[in-house]
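Propose amino acids for all 224 sites.
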């Protein structure tokens, strides 16, 4: 199976108030279509690691490679372009624009990327909403949707540019049990049937346990 992400000897320091090492010699690989959970207690460094993998933070030692492209050392502009084309994000809070419809929210990253016409993007966006079972909500303002529906719109938005990897930061952290199961099943299905690679940071042990693989962290290190 093709390796989609490779992190080698990642070290990360925070300098405020004193110099403190938050990630220690992190190395791992992720295969295409793998559904990976990163777990550990608060403060163990898992969200910091995800932030580095997302290319938002470039201040680290070591190397990050994605889709056979070395990202370490690239400029902010190069990274922004790579991110738009290859990464989709799902957060604990959905960050939808409240006055926009579900459909408009899903279309936004594709309009920004500018690879397709508006008509094509709309067609793609509807197909993503359909994939997540909420195409009937397409024309509703996102603030009129339930929490679970909003998170599904956020997943559709993350998928719109056909990313190499979806990164989730506590993607079910704000949902009740029923919607947590729905979102988990969506991720599982995406990995299994669409060969979508997913890396999710989570506190939810059930969520992690049912993903393909768990990386557990403690005090900035991978423990298993």
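Proposal:
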């Amino acid at each position: 199976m093709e390796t989609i992400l490779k992190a080698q000897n990642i070290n990360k320091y925070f300098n405020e108030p004193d110099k403190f090492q938050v990630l220690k010699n992190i190395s791992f690989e992720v295969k295409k279509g793998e559904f990976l959970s990163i777990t550990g207690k608060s403060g163990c460094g898992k969200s910091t690691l995800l932030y580095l993998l997302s290319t938002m933070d470039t201040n680290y030692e070591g190397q990050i490679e994605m889709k056979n492209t070395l990202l370490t050392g690239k400029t902010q502009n190069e990274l922004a372009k790579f991110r738009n084309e290859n990464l989709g994000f799902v957060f604990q809070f959905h960050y939808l624009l409240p006055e926009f419809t579900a459909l408009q929210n899903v279309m936004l990253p594709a309009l920004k990327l500018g690879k397709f016409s508006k008509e094509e993007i709309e067609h793609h966006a509807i197909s993503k909403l359909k994939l997540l079972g909420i195409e009937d909500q397409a024309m509703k303002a996102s603030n009129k949707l339930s929490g679970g529906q909003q998170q599904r719109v956020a997943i559709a938005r993350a998928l719109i540019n056909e990313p190499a990897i979806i990164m989730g930061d506590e993607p079910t952290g704000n949902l009740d049990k029923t919607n947590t199961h729905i979102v988990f099943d969506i991720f599982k299905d995406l990995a299994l049937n669409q060969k979508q690679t997913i890396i999710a940071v989570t506190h939810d042990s059930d969520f992690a346990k049912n993903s393909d693989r768990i990386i557990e962290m403690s005090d900035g290190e991978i423990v298993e």
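The chain has seven helices and ten strands. The mean pLDDT is 87.
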